[in-house]
Amino acid sequence: MIEKTRLECIDCNLCKKNCLFLQKYNMNLKEFTYKIDLRYRCFMCGKCKSVCPKDLSGTEIAFELRKSRPENILKTEFLKNDYKFKNLPKRKTDTLLFLGCNYPGFYPKTSEKLIDICKKMGIDFSVECCKKPVYEQGGNAKFSNIENMLEHNNTKTLICACPNCYHLLKRKLNVNVISVFQFLYENGIGKKIKDTPSIFFPCSDRYSREIFQFILHYIDGYNEPYKKINCCGLGGGAKKYEEDIIEETKKMLHKAWEKNIYTYCSSCSGIFKTYGLKNIKNFLSEILEVHEEVSLNYAKNVLKYKFKRHTK
To answer: Is the C-alpha dihedral spanning 98, 290, 295, 268 positive or negative?
Structure first.
């Protein structure tokens, strides 16, 4: 993407007009390709690609720059490649519920309800990192750990609760990867939502809406008041470098807020809670009638799920 951008960029600056990060450093995507020192400051949200007439991608530029010169990733590799709070299936299972690492932390009761539903259908669960934090930072992401788990358990279908897990593992694994909403819809599980949700779309599904097409079966209509806000603030690991952009994002969210903010990414829900936003709703929790508020007792919750028992 770096070479493609340098050759094909027409300097229209549409990318800059639509991105707080590019605006802050007064550059377009072509100029970004020469700014390796800024590689970890991009939120990798994909907005630039959506407006670029040449289909150029800041996400891919940032990734290539990070891959060429990884920095400060040993801690992430240590924590996430061999995920310290993992809880893997204890039996052979053709279909596996892949909770990821964040869903049990932010929505423990909803995760419990989902596990119970799957248990009745003979489906086991796993708590494991999809390796996106390592992959996105340009590190050596060990997808082989997941592949070995699936092979050991003869798993052919993976049900992903998290949109980040879904979109990454769909590209990286040789098994059938589906979203939890597809699983619920195809099995006639879940209740229609009475609210008219105001939706904040997660970066990973914002433009393809592969997952959202199944959520549509559970709502009669929706609003998009947050369209101009590119990322919740957690994308690309840029949050720790770009506090001023985070503050601007927070202000924009509060200004755009309309009655509620529905998400289908638990990480979005978690950071919105810290921003002080009200009436944060998670589609999965609402569809399963758990109506759970996002929990900020993340460490306590993931520790509990590390030791959660599997039924045989």
So the answer is: positive
284: left (phi over 0), alpha (psi -120 to 50) or beta: alpha
- Phi-psi region at 163: left, alpha or beta (left = phi > 0; alpha = psi -120 to 50): alpha
Contact partners, residue 194, CB within 8 Å, separation at least 6:
none
How many C-beta atoms surround the C-beta of residue 3 within 10 A? 9
Q: Is-contact 4 221, C-beta < 8 A?
A: no
288 backbone dihedrals φ, ψ, rounded to 5° = -85, 5
Phi/psi for 19 (5° steps) reads: -140, 120
Which amino acid is present at 44? M
Q: Do residues 46 and 203 touch, judged by C-beta distance below 8 A?
A: yes
The residue to which tokens 């970890």 are assigned: 40
- State the number of CA atoms in the 13 A half-sphere of 90 facing the CB: 9
10-residue stretch averages of pLDDT, the chain, 312 residues long: 98 98 98 98 98 98 97 92 94 95 97 97 96 96 96 97 98 97 98 96 98 98 96 95 97 95 98 97 98 96 94 72
CB-based contacts of 254, cutoff 8 Å, min separation 6: 275, 276, 277
pLDDT single digits (tens) 284-312 = 999 999 999 999 999 999 999 999 999 76
CB-CB neighbours of 194 under 10 Å: 8
Residue from 265, 209, 188, 199 nearest 234 by CA: 265
Percent residues over pLDDT 90 in the chain: 97
Q: Can you name the CATH fold of 78-188?
A: Rossmann fold (3.40.50)
Q: What is the DSSP letter of 102?
A: T
Domain boundaries, the chain: 2-68, 78-188
Each residue's pLDDT tens digit, 224-275: 999 999 999 999 999 999 999 999 999 999 999 989 999 999 999 999 999 9
